[in-house]
Every structure is written in C-alpha cells, then in structure tokens.
Design brief:
It is built from 14 helices and 14 strands. It has 666 residues and is an alpha/beta fold. Among the domains are: 176 residues, no CATH class; 233 residues, Kinesin motor domain (Kinesin, 3-Layer(aba) Sandwich). Strand 2 and strand 3 form a beta hairpin. The chain binds adenosine-5'-triphosphate.
Length: 666
C-alpha cells in the first residue's frame, strides 16, 4: 500500500513539474507578450495544486506510518496470541475474536486506503481540470495577442491618417495665418483712414457742440420768455375760469328758469289763442273739378285778412255781391300743408290739457273729407287729421323729458241719430251710450273702442279701418257723399315727470255730413230721412253755438247726438275751429251763401276763456319746484367754489398770488 501512495505522489510531482516546465517554457518563449497577471494567476494555481498535493502526500505518509505501527503492534499481538493459542482453547477462542477484530480493523484500513486512492483520482481530475484551464487560458492568451496585434495595426493606420490630417491642418493653418496677416495689414490701413475720418468728424462735432451750446443758450432765453407768457396765460385762464363760473351760474339760473319759462310760454301761448277767440272759422274754397266750367265762379275776391267776396253771376251790381269775413280764407290753390299751418297751434293746446274741436262744415262734395283726411295716405296729401296726430307725437317727443304722454284714439260716426263705433269689428253693434258729463278718464263715449297709439302709422292704420267702416251711399249730388258725421277723438293724458301732476286734453276731429238743404238734394224715402237727421243735427250744432254766444243759462246740447258727443269741446273751456268748405261753381251759389251765413254767425261767437284741465295741486307743486330749483342753485354755487379752490391749489410753485389776486413771478 505504501508503495502505491508514493507512486501517486511521484506522478503528481512529475505532472506538476511538467506544468511548471510548460509554463516556464511558454513564459520564456512569449516573454513580453503574455500579460503578467495571467502568469501570476497560473503560478498561483500551480502553487495551490502543489500545496494540496503536499498535504495529501503528508496525510498519506501519516496514514502509512499509523498503519505500519498498528501492523507491527498486531503482529506482536499475533505472536503473543500464537503463544497463547498454543496455550488453551479459550485463549484460542479469544485469539480468534481478536483476529476477527484485527480483520475488521484491517478492512477499515483497506477502506481508508480506498478513500486515499479516491482522493488521488480526484486530485488527478483536478489536475486535468487545471490543465484544461491552462489550455483555455493559453487560447485566451493567444486570442488576446491576436486582438492586441490587430489593435496595434489599427492604431498604426489611424496614427498614419492622423499624421496626414495634421499635416493638412498645419498647411491650412499656415495659409490662414498668411491671410490673417494680410487682413491685419488691410485693417491697419482702414483703421488709419478711419481714424483720420474720425478726427475730422471730431472737429465737426466740436464745432456742432459749440453751435448747440449757443442754441441752448438761445433756448434758455426763449424758455424764460415762454414761462412769462405761460404765467400771463395762466392769469388769463384764471379770469376765464371765473367767467366760466359766473356763466355756469347763469346757465344754472337759466335751467332753473326753464320750467318757469316753459309754463309762462304755455300760458302766453294760450292767452294768444284766447285773444284770437276760442272759436275760429277758416273758409276753404274747393278748386274746380276736372270737367267743370272754370269761368263761372262765385268767388270774386279773397282778402289777406279773411275777407271773401261772393258774387251771384245772375244778379248785377251790389245786390249780387256779398262780403264775408272769417279768421282766414284759403283759396283753391292752398295746399294741405298751408291749411294745416294755421291749425297747428291748437294741437299744442291739446298737449297742454285743453279740449279742442276741429270740424269741417259744408255742402256735399265741397271738400270736407279732403281737408280732414286728405285724398290719399301719402304724406303730401295728408289732411288735418293725420297732420294733427303727427304733430302731437312730435311735440310729445320733444317734451319727453318734462311730460310723459299717453295717446288713445276713438272713432265713431253719427248716422240717423245713432252713434256707431267705427273701430269695432263687431257687425251687430249695440247702441253706444253718451255721458252728458265726461267720465274721470275724459271719455264721453266710454263704450266705444279706445286704442292706444304710439305713432302716426298706428293712427293711419286705425283710420283706414274707420273710413272703411263709414256708411257711404249714392245721392243725386255726390256718389261718394257721406251722410254721416264722422268723429275721430284723440285723448291725451300727460304726466309731469317731475311733479306727477296730470293733464288731460281731448281733440275732436269731425267730418260733418253734407249741409245741403233737403229740397236741393232731391232725396225721398230713406235718403230724405237721412237728410232730415243731418239737417237736424247741424241746426242743433248752430243752436248750441248761439246759446253759448248769448251766454244763455241753458245750452241745448241734448238736441242732437252730435252736440252731446262734442259737448266737452264746445263749452267755455274748449277751443273750436270750423273749416267752412265751399264750392266755387255757380250752381252751388245759394248753398254757398247759406253755408257762409251759418259760418259767419258762428265766427262772431265768443265762447269765453278756455281753461286747461290741470290738477288743482299745481300751485303747491310749482312752489315745490321753486324750492328744489333754489336747492340746485345753492348746490351749483358750492361746486363753483370748490372748483375755484381746486384751481388755486393747482397753481405752479414758482408763482404766488398777491392779495389782489394777481400772479407775481418770483
Ligand atoms: N282742395 C281740393 N283740391 C283738390 N280736389 C279737391 C279739394 N277739395 C275737394 N276736392 C275733391 O272734391 C271731391 C269732393 O271732395 P270730398 O269728398 O272731400 O267732399 P266732402 O265735402 O267730403 O263730400 P261728402 O259730404 O260727400 O263727404 C273729391 O274728389 C275731392 O278729391
């Protein structure tokens, strides 16, 4: 057994020697090529293997020594036992047992030997592994050498390239330096030129500065003069401000007086109207119609002051002539606008709270509808109705800051002494009741449709409906002659924006039925009845006016529906205007004379002073207005004083105000 162990050790030793030899040889051969680290590692591996082999060899040697000692001990024991075998059988048996123990021990030793052998085999394997590792390391080394060489080759190529590039760069740099030198030379030349130029400019600048200094000195002098001018201007401004203050005060006073003036204006205006008389008669002559003989006219002369001379072509001399005098006579050439211009002031009165009645009187076909409504709804042709309402809206718009107006319209006709609502769309109408004294809202016909209107176009629409509803029929005198009185009533309610006082005005625009005498219209039956009613109501109208003229205690308003409806506008509180329409033709002479006689009597009537329907609290309200206006004046005075103080504060610091209010320069 010892022999085999020593053999293994020897082979391990020899192998190690071989490895070392190979290493030494490769190191020798590749000196300078193998990295020191690999060599170092290889040596470390070999040393480790040697160390382990030594330990194993030492271990095996110890085992061999122990086994040897034990073998000797057992051999001596066997000898002693053999001695003893020779002794007794018991001893033999013991010896056999001992031998058995020895055998067991021997088998143990053999097992251990086996283990040692296994260890040797393992070590041999490890050695093989080490060899494999060494060979792989060698391969790696070779690969690394190869790579190293490749890198070296690449480095060499790169180095060559870099050297070439460097050479080119050096050449370029040299060229650049050459150019730079040239540029420097150029710049130096330019610099010299420029510095010469700058020197010149410096000289110019110095000269300019000198002139500027002189200019600034001049400016200083003019600035001082401007300052003094400014102070003078400030003084002037101050005076103007104080003037402005006083003007402002005047304006405030004027504003204060505005309401008073307006009220006075209204008062004066109405006084003028009163002086003219509260019933006015304007006569209008209709032009000849196409086809009529223009030579045979009854109109001889129309004077500027309302004179009208009518002549009877059948009677010669003074007997055949009759002079009438009215407030105004419009010839057949007068336009719709001319006719309305003298009516206009009455419309203002309605807005001031007066009742006004404008009616057209005349025989059939004399132009009543033409004057009141106009031949068409185009603005040029508008009659008194449209123009009056248009004016009413215009004036109310102008006064919107002082009064707020509400306007409502009713339209009725009186036919055969029955009042019909012309704005109602009901076919069967109930009879409309008439209030002898108008209701608080000013309505005499409370059941008739009342439409609020805001513009002339609203009125136009309503009147179109009304005219379409008006009863018309044929007569021997005029095909379109109306045999009913049409009454358009405009109710105006004005509220004083500031005081809240209310005024109510009412405007009646009446297109009367034809005034011709019954026998002349050749009417019979129904037509006769209609004519009689018409005559009755017109004569009732005359009676009322004459009763008022004579200041009778009893005024017969109730004799006809017409006078009942117009009652509020025919009394002493109202203003009345009558258009007397006449035909110029000779055939109409007697009708013309009777019409003009009626009108003449009417125009001689004085209805007395008209009265406005204003609230009784007016005086109190006016006093309130006066006190509020006084407040406004004192407020404005304070504002003016404050303005004065602010203005004084804003004065420049370099000036002061002396005791007399003038500005002194410091
Ligand atoms: N100033 C005028 N200029 C031109 N044409 C007029 C003028 N006045 C009336 N006419 C014409 O005379 C004719 C009769 O006028 P209008 O119908 O107004 O009369 P009227 O008095 O209203 O008659 P009626 O009593 O039948 O209602 C109409 O054709 C009208 O166009």
């Amino acid at each position: 057994m010892m022999h085999s162990n020593s053999l293994d050790n020897a082979s391990t030793q020899s192998l190690l020697t071989v490895i070392n030899g190979i290493l030494d040889e490769s190191i020798e051969r590749k000196k300078g090529e193998i990295p020191h680290r690999v060599v170092y590692l290889l040596r470390k591996v070999v040393q480790e293997i040697e160390r382990r082999l030594c330990i194993q060899a030492e271990h095996i040697r110890n085992q061999n020594t122990i086994i040897k000692t034990r073998e000797e001990k057992y051999l001596s024991k066997i000898k002693a036992l053999q001695v003893l075998v020779n002794g007794t059988n018991e001893e033999n048996q013991m010896t056999v047992n001992l031998l058995q123990v020895v055998k067991e021990e021997k088998s143990q030793i053999e097992e251990r030997q086996k283990l040692s052998e296994q260890n040797v085999v393992r070590l041999i394997k490890e050695k093989e592994n080490a060899e494999n590792m060494i060979s792989s390391l060698k391969e790696e080394m070779e690969e690394m050498n190869r790579l190293h060489k490749q890198q070296l080759d690449q480095f060499e190529i790169k180095t060559k390239q870099m050297e070439e590039k460097l050479a080119t760069k050096v050449k370029e740099f040299e060229l650049h330096v050459l150019r730079s030198n040239m540029k420097i030379e150029e710049v130096e030349t330019t610099y010299q030129q420029k510095s010469q130029l700058w020197n010149k400019k410096e000289n110019i600048f110095h000269n300019y500065m000198n002139s500027q200094q002189l200019y600034v000195k001049g400016l200083n002098i003019s600035s001082r003069s401007i300052k003094s001018d400014m102070y003078a201007f400030q003084m002037k401004w101050r005076d103007e401000m104080s003037n402005l203050g006083s003007n402002l005060k005047c304006l405030v006073d004027a504003a204060d007086n505005y309401h008073k003036v307006l009220a006075e204006n209204q008062k004066l205006f109405n006084e003028v109207q009163e002086l003219r008389g509260n019933i006015r008669v304007y006569c209008r002559v209709r032009p000849f119609l196409p086809g009529q003989d223009k030579q045979s006219t009854t109109i001889d002369y129309i004077g500027e002051s309302g004179e009208l001379l009518i002549s009877n072509p059948l009677k010669q001399g003074k007997d055949g002539q009759r002079m009438f005098k009215f407030n105004k006579v419009f010839s057949s050439f007068a336009s719709q606008a001319d006719v309305f211009s003298d009516t206009q002031p009455l419309i203002r009165s309605v807005l001031d709270g007066f009742n006004v009645c404008i009616f057209a009187y005349g025989q059939t076909g004399s132009g009543k509808t033409y004057t009141m409504s106009g031949p068409s709804t185009s603005k040029k042709d508008w009659g008194v109705n449209y123009r009056a309402l248009n004016d009413l809206f215009d004036i109310s718009l102008n006064r919107r800051n002082i009064f707020s107006y509400e306007v409502g319209v009713q339209m009725v006709e009186i036919y055969n002494e029955q009042v019909r609502d012309l704005l109602s769309n009901k076919v069967a109408q109930k009879r409309l009741g008439i209030w002898s004294t108008s209701q608080p809202n000013g309505l005499v016909l409370p059941d008739a449709s009342l439409y609020p209107v805001k513009s002339t176009s609203d009125v136009l629409d309503l009147m179109e409906i009304g005219l379409a509803n008006r009863a018309v029929g044929a007569t021997a005198l005029n095909e379109r002659s109306s045999r009913s009185h049409s009454i358009l009533t405009v109710h105006v309610r004005g509220v004083d924006v500031k005081t809240g006082s209310i005024s109510r005005g009412c405007l009646h625009l009446v297109d009367l039925a034809g005034s011709e005498r019954v026998e002349r219209s050749e009417a019979t039956g129904d037509r006769l009845k209609e004519a009689q009613h018409i005559n009755k109501s017109l004569s009732a109208l005359g009676d009322v006016i004459f009763a008022l003229a004579q200041k009778n205690a009893h005024v017969p308003y109730r004799n006809s529906k017409l006078t009942q409806v117009l009652q509020s506008s025919l009394g002493g509180q109202a203003k009345t205007l009558m258009f007397v329409q006449i035909n110029p033709d000779v055939e109409s002479y007697s009708e013309t004379i009777s019409t003009l006689k009626f009108a003449e009597r009417v125009s001689g009537v004085e209805l007395g002073a008209a009265r406005s329907n204003k609230d009784g609290k007016d005086i109190k309200e006016l006093l309130e207005q006066v006190s509020s206006l006084k407040d406004t004046i004192s407020r404005k005075d304070m504002e003016i004083e404050q303005l004065q103080v602010t203005k004084d504060k804003d004065k420049p610091p370099s000036s002061a105000v002396d005791n007399h209010g003038s500005i002194m320069l410091r």
